[in-house]
Amino acid sequence: xxxxxxxxxxxxxxxxxxxHHYGLxxxxxxxxxxxxxxxxxxxxxxxxxxxxxLRKSPSAIAEEVCSACTKIIAKYRMIREVExxxxxxxxxxxxxxxxxxxxxEEVKSKGKAYGSRDIGKGKRVLIEHTSVNPNKALHIGxxxxxxLGDTIYRILRFTNHNVxxxxxxxxxxxxxxxxxxxxxxxxxxxxxxxxxxxxxxDDVYVKVNEMYEHxxxxxxxxxxxxKAMEDYNSDIARFAREVTSRVLDEQLxxxxxxxxxxxxxxxxxxxxxxxxxxxxxxxxxxSGIVKMDDNPSSKYYGCLVVxxxxxxEEKVLVRSDGTATYIAKDIPYAMWKLGILEDPFKYxxxxxxxxxxxxxxxxxxxxxxxLHINGADIAITVIDVRQSRLQRIITxxxxxxxxxxxxxxxxxxxxxxxxxxxxxxxxxxIGDRRFAHMKGxxxxxxxxxxxxxxxHTKAYEEVKVRNPEADEQWLHRTAxxxxxxxxxxxxxxxxxxKIITFDIEDALNLQGESGQYIQYAYARASRILEKASSIxxxxxxxxxxxxxxxxxGVGEGEGVGEGADIDIDTSSTHLLGKDxxxxxxxxxxxxxxxxxxxxxxxxxxxxRYCYSLAMIFNEFYEKVPVLHEQDTNxxxxxxxxVKAFMYxxxxxxxxxxxxxxxxx
Length: 664
What we know:
The chain is 50% helix and 11% strand. It is α/β, with parallel strands linked by helices. A hairpin with a 5-residue loop joins strand 3 (79-84) and strand 4. Helix 6 (174-184) crosses helix 7 and helix 18 (515-543) packs across helix 21 (604-623). The radius of gyration is 29 Å and the shape is globular.
């Protein structure tokens, strides 16, 4: 709360003037940072808001307000000057050294919690993301879903929301039926040479769909399998669960590789077997929301439809043959999330995740654990824009039940395409197009594992050149972190409503907007503190233990990366100059960026801030000699700023799911 504290002081100053000078109160106005430095450190539109009340021009009111502020400004420590702009805005200049002192003090006191605020108040949030059909591996289009959902989870947890992460496993859908047809009726071997999720998706699923084109009788086989899968205890259903479990285990390895984690796997087959839909249907009938279409001339004759459709159109929930549509499965699930339906599940431990947390799974076994999963204050479903209409229908139905009230939220995003150069790199033929949309049935996609492997290889080569003496284990660990950062940042930096054209070269560009660039800025800062630590050690040896010598500050045990014995010292912040203050202001606005991201649920805000912070530090690094100074106090002040940057950067990168590397 640093720039925020300055904003609060500016508001308090203006409120005092409004009250004492004009005798008014409860005036709505804004105080914010301007886009251009020439308009001050903060500005307010107060004069425009008062103009109608006072029947004066905004510029005249701005003059009056600034004059009144000048008389009482002394008691507001962070505000140095208030000046009117000819257009009517009120501009504030801050005491930058006071801002630096407060910022560094707050970073020092909060450490890993710097930037967090109690926005959530413990509010319970369910986030559903990833939810890839368990018949294939994740491709890079799925990665956008995973990264968005996981990043939102991290940010909400950081701001004191009680977050539960769900991964919906559609183990009874059409795509699962396709691979069952392949194994059961087309004699595909059940053990290929590939990772099992790759084998099912790349070979079985694609080839079975090709065979449907040549042998239409196979479609009847698929219908039989799909129907049999609805009986939870049938042999086909059991076999489908065995296959999807094997696929899911491999998918989770990819998800964990991307630094994601989950709290619970929700299996569709169990949702169906729990009769959750029957309970939901009973509520929908009682509310008059659904009806059976009994008009013989209607195209929906014999179907169960939503009585009040979205955009004037009715929607089929149950077909005339008794099979449920996709939405009929999603409605009870949404009702379960919000606690409209009681939780019919017990929960069993599925596995332990790499971060040490337990991954639970829904179960119909009465010996399972009685966890509390559903009943959220807010339920967020991360799913691409192609499902927007379906999500609007669900929201509409929940609203008709009087149980939505903004609690059910769809987080839509556009799809991921492949750049022409990246497609060629993976031998995907797209003709003369600049990019290609992925199509699973046609085999036009790149699996996430394959992309990560290629990114890993390229990163390894770069890191090896810079660190020729490093051991192989460190090189591969660092290369993997860089690969994951490249993938995650590429998925976060774009607006949600924009298609991402993924390009492998851009993702690893050390000079451009990339995850690697962000990591490199942190590693640079770590190197500065590492060198400073060496100076401390050398000074102790030369001057003797306990003598001050040229020591730059001894830490308190908790460090950020290398240089753990370099402490944040705020006693010399008055020595910091203009170049340093640019970095101070960037650090000071971190919590505002976190709050903006919580409000918008758009991680781009935080991703772009992280990149901007890295750029500002790199400019600071080039302009300001941190260790090559004769003035020991100035060295201490600059090192304190570097360490404050590292805390801020580390916290921000953690929210984005990117590793902070001390060396690259």
